[in-house]
Amino acid sequence: MANTTTPTPDRDISEALGERVRKADADGTPLRIVGGDTKGFYGRPVEGEALSTREHRGITSYDPVELIVSVRTGTPLAELEARLAEHGQMLPFEPPHFGDTATVGGMVATGLSGPRRPWAGAVRDFVLGARVITRAGDEQRFGGEVMKNVAGYDLSRLMVGAQGSLGLLTEVTLKVLPRPSASHSLRLEMPLDQARARLAEWGRQPLPLTAAAWQTGALHLRLEGGPGSVAATRERLGGEDLEADFWEALREQRLAFFSREDARPLWRLSLPYDTPALALDGVAEDDLLYDWAGCQRWLRSELPAETLREACASAGGHATCLTPGAAAPFTPLAPVMAKYHRRLKAELDPKGIFNPGRLYAEL
């Protein structure tokens, strides 16, 4: 995604943020943590006073040789990516933006990754450390070069995907990687069963695959790596050339499949790699888009949530509803997991001031 954001001066407002949190905890006032708000649809709505991190911004440390960057969470995601690109580097997990105002904090809080995720890793895999404002209003550092772990937890990774429900993330340290020297995308027409068989075969070979998606009779592939390896694989696999911006459109949900004109709920099915097509009544092939070589499947369907979640659970996966306003977007926690989540929330946020109810109503 091109960086259309005009850089503004770095600014550290951690003291002001800490004071807001300290007062909210003393008063028992719920806070709705907001960055760029491009991912506000993901999760349950939060009732509380808005606490913006947008002014807390800037890259505090960057060592291109060591492939490590530290950045405040209000920093625009596009700004960070542009800085990395100047040194031929990138965020390997290919995070979605969903808008020009996306921030680094929102990237970590949601933990969402793009098409490269099965081959490169998830957001959590590249978080080395973090600074977090606790309910007492104190900024603590976890992980990284220095570890001050007064709470008894490594919050640097717990914060990934927690959607701000455990504390206020103010800075994150990330591992980055070099950009591939060559990249080429292909489109191969084939039915789903053949595509699944091919992907299983290619997955056992040292091919430079970094993205694989299937939709409406065609398998889309991205090859990345050394020029010789990419050229040889391209020649071997055949198919038609595919515009590289297909992957950005998929990542940002700009493909026609994600059109808002389709009123049916949008579901993300997370499943083991070798899961066959689920037996779902009334679901046609055009209602599905296979991403991550089939581990992530996007579905447009009005089937009941219980039906979809039972089908996914029987295959060892889970289903998430990404339609804004869903009462229960995430799969309910098993009793044992729910117990640990409640204990963690009670330890770190006993008054429930940090994004209450964002993940689950009881949290």
TrEMBL record:
Keywords: FAD, Flavoprotein. GO terms for molecular function: catalytic activity; FAD binding. InterPro entries: FAD-bd_PCMH, FAD-bd_PCMH-like_sf, FAD-bd_PCMH_sub2, FAD-linked_Oxase-like_C, Oxid_FAD_bind_N. It comes from the Bacteria. Residues 1-179 form the FAD-binding PCMH-type domain. SUPFAM superfamilies: FAD-binding/transporter-associated domain-like, FAD-linked oxidases, C-terminal domain. This is Glycolate oxidase subunit GlcE. The gene is glcE.
